[in-house]
Amino acid sequence: MFIFYPLGVHYRHRTMTITQRRQSPIDIKSEVVCHDPEHCKVSIQSPI
Q: Where does the source fall among the domains of life (predicted)?
């Protein structure tokens, strides 16, 4: 569930994504595949 937090933050503010990138490598994948909020949740849950 903690994965949803960085996703929402990076989705709203791109500046926060830079800080989250270092902590969560998955954020980089979500940024490219995260076109829609619904699609994001599925793509992030799949690798995990």
A: Eukaryota
Residue 44 host element (H or E): helix 37-45
- Those residues with Cβ within 8 angstroms of residue 47's Cβ, 6 or more apart along the chain or in another chain: 26, 29
Question: 23: Cβ–Cβ under 8 A, 6 or more apart, which residues?
Answer: 6
pTM value is 0.16
Tell me the C-alpha distance between 15 and 41, whole Å.
21
